[in-house]
Each structure stands twice: as structure tokens, then as C-alpha cells.
């Protein structure tokens, strides 16, 4: 400190321009917004734009140094230089916003400082990115940990997560709607308008096709390997894949089936455009409970580890249900409260899943993924994507969250 004071005194006596020291307080005018900090903070993590700026630039009449860049980006950069954790702020950005931030990081020559946050393409660290050639319309996890997707070109893609390498299986059969896993990880079921087919993932060959009289709207598989199909005419059918036979038909909904899930005890849960949730005894085919509360179409279902049921819908609401009583025990608040019609293609809950630690994950057509602590009913993290299609979710064997979230 004494050396710096002596240097200032000698320069004053000799009329030599004073060179700023690391402890000097400075004002920066970034795109019209004033920031106050020190040179030490600005240069604390190696050489960058500011290491030489003060020798080459003079302050304005108000004593601030003007830089014609984005103030919001600089606020994040300065917080990082000050040692604050900025990971949450970056996660809330969409890919386009992160790329804009990266442009300013490059301008200030601070790439190395942010290498722990994301790569040069704006991809968050600790995330794997598997890119398909075409938009992905359905996503599932196999019991062996592999990820399987179905894209809009009717191609099944089997992904090895560690390497992001894929095996591609073209499907030469109409327009595919969705995909579901079977108990045997060698096989998957693909649904079309009124046909569902079994494919061998090892050979890429279709084993058999099972015609369905009605248009398939939703489908899933039970723990015993049987297939459940929800039709656009409100009917639920259960199929024995081994014999290609429909073994059960259930009616109860008054409009198109939208989603399925299964409870811990094996009972089937369905939702519909009629705004109801129905719980079915699979053995008898009887509806044992009807739940009504959503004000519009229910679009997603899942179950929590403690057995409670979760539903999300076009009313942009997530509800948690006690299955025994049929009562709604929690309503999760965090999405825009805009009651809308399903056909207007506005914001609605598009998918639900649970993580291995018990937290709930939801996605919405507002391009966000939210992670919820169901003990407190609080949203603990929001991730923003640049999704042009509905975001779909699945949980991998190791607990990692996987999503369709493409540009």
C-alpha cells in the first residue's frame, strides 16, 4: 500500500499521468447503466478486457468509463467476478439468451472464467446433449438405462447415454404417434393411428403388428407386460401382446383419453378431455374412483414415491391427490394463471415425471421445466428451453432427467 502511495506522489510531482492501481474504485457505464466496483475485482481472475482498458481509455465527464454492451450480461459477469454463484441465473436462461451472454463473455475475454458454467455453444455443464436429425415426438427409458426416442420421420433411435451414440431403426409404416417400453428391453411398442407394432431393437425388425379398430390417443404398458390403449372414442382396451388378443374393454370417460399412469398397487389411472381422472381395477375392468377438479383437459399424469397421484392440465395447474380419499391435497403454483381452451395451443402442462430423490418434474408449453419439492410444494429450480414442440420428460435409471427440448 505504501508503494502505491509513493508512486502516486511521484507522478503528481512530475505531472506524469497516474496509472490506476488494483484497489482503485471505478465506475463503469455499461450501455447506460452505472456499475461501481474496483479494478482488483475486474482483473481478479487473470488477464481480460479490463487489464489494459484503464491505460487506454479515459473516463467521461461523470468519471465513469463507458462501454457500449448489454448491462444485464455485465451484471452476471460482475457477479461471477465477485465470487457469487450464478448457476441458477444461467439455468433460467434459454439457449438464445445464453448465446447472447457468451458474446459478451468473449468481448470481455473471460471465457476461461465461465468454463465451469457452460461450453462455447451455451450448453450447460453436467448435461448431455443427444441430437436427432428430426423433431422428437416421444421419449422413453428402458430398464437397462438406454434412452429410446421416436422422431417425426418415423425413426426409432436407441441412445447410449455415456457416449450419446445411437442406433437408428427406420419404420416403414404410416405416421407414428408414440412409443412405449416392454418388460424385455430388446423390444418396444410403437403406436400408429389404428395399429401398434412390436419392434426388435437388436435386429431393427418388426415382429408383429396388432390392428386396432379405433384411433389410438394414448397408450402405456402394465407391469405384467400387457398393453393399455386409450382411444379417441373414450374406450380403454387391454391387450395381451403374446397372443395379439384384446382381453379387456372398459368404458367410463365421455371424451378422448389423454394420458395413463399406474399406481403402486398396480391399478391403472386414466385422464381425459372430459376433465376427469379415473382409477381402474385392472383385474375386473371396473372404474373404482372418479376424480373431478381440473377446469379443463388433463394432459399429464404421474405418481409420487409415497403413492400420491399427480395431474397437470390445460388449466396450467398441477394437483397432487390422495388416492384413497380422492381429495386434492396440494396445488402447485408457479405457472401463468391463464385459463384457456385446449384447442388454442397456449400454455399448458405437457409432461410430468419424478426423480429418484422424490422430487417432481413438470414441463409446460411456456418452454420451461420446473423441479418441485413436494414436501414444501415449492418450485426449487426452473430450466428454460427453446422448444418449438411440447417438452416431454423421462427419468433415466441413474436418476438423471432427460427431456425433449430442441430448437
UniProtKB/TrEMBL annotation:
Stretches for region Disordered: 1-23
Comp. bias (Basic and acidic residues): 1-22
Record keywords: Repeat, WD repeat
InterPro entries on file: SKP1/BTB/POZ_sf, T1-type_BTB, WD40/YVTN_repeat-like_dom_sf, WD40_PAC1, WD40_repeat_CS, WD40_repeat_dom_sf, WD40_rpt
Domain Potassium channel tetramerisation-type BTB: from-to ranges: 26-114
GO process annotations (BP): protein homooligomerization; ribosomal large subunit assembly
The protein's name: F-box/WD repeat-containing protein
Amino acid at each position: 500500500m505504501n508503494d502505491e502511495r509513493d508512486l502516486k506522489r511521484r507522478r503528481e510531482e512530475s505531472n506524469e499521468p497516474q496509472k490506476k492501481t488494483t484497489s482503485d474504485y471505478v465506475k463503469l457505464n455499461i450501455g447506460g447503466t452505472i456499475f461501481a466496483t474496483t479494478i482488483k475485482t475486474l482483473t481478479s481472475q487473470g488477464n481480460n478486457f479490463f487489464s489494459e482498458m484503464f491505460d487506454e481509455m479515459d473516463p467521461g465527464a461523470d468519471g465513469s468509463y463507458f462501454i457500449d454492451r448489454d448491462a444485464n450480461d455485465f451484471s452476471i459477469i460482475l457477479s461471477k467476478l465477485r465470487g457469487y454463484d450464478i448457476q441458477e441465473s444461467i439455468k433460467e436462461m434459454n439457449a438464445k439468451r445464453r448465446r447472447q451472454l457468451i458474446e459478451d463473455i468473449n468481448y470481455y475475454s473471460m471465457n476461461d472464467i465461465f468454463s465451469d458454467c457452460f461450453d462455447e455453444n451455451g450448453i450447460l455443464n453436467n448435461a448431455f446433449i443427444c441430437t436427432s436429425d428430426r423433431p422428437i415426438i416421444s421419449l422413453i427409458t428402458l430398464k437397462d438405462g438406454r434412452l429410446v426416442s421416436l422422431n417425426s420421420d418415423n425413426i426409432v433411435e436407441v441412445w447410449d447415454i455415456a457416449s450419446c451414440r445411437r442406433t437408428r431403426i427406420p419404420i416403414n409404416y404410416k405416421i407414428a404417434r408414440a412409443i412405449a417400453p416392454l418388460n424385455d428391453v430388446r423390444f418396444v411398442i410403437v403406436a400408429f393411428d389404428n395399429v401398434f407394432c412390436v419392434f426388435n431393437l437388436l435386429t431393427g425388425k418388426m415382429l408383429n403388428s396388432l390392428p386396432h379398430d379405433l384411433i389410438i390417443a394414448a397408450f402405456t404398458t402394465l407391469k405384467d407386460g400387457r398393453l393399455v390403449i386409450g382411444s379417441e372414442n373414450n374406450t380403454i382396451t387391454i391387450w395381451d401382446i403374446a397372443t395379439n388378443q384384446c382381453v379387456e374393454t372398459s368404458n367410463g370417460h365421455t371424451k378422448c383419453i389423454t394420458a395413463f399412469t399406474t399406481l403402486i398397487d398396480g391399478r391403472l389411472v386414466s385422464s381425459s378431455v372430459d376433465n376427469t381422472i379415473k382409477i381402474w381395477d385392472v383385474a375386473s375392468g371396473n372404474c373404482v374412483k372418479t376424480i373431478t377438479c381440473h377446469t379443463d383437459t388433463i394432459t399429464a399424469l404421474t405418481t409420487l414415491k409415497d403413492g400420491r397421484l399427480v395431474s397437470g392440465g390445460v388449466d396450467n395447474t398441477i394437483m397432487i391427490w390422495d388416492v384413497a380419499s380422492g381429495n386434492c391435497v396440494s396445488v402447485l403454483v408457479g405457472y401463468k394463471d391463464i385459463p384457456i381452451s385446449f384447442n388454442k395451443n397456449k400454455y399448458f402442462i405437457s409432461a410430468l415425471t419424478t426423480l429418484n430423490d422424490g422430487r417432481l418434474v413438470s414441463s409446460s408449453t411456456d418452454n420451461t421445466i420446473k423441479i418441485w419439492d413436494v414436501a414444501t410444494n415449492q418450485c426449487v429450480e426452473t430450466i428454460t428451453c427453446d422448444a418449438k414442440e411440447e417438452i416431454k420428460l423421462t427419468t433415466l435409471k441413474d436418476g438423471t432427467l432427460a427431456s425433449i427440448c430442441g430448437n
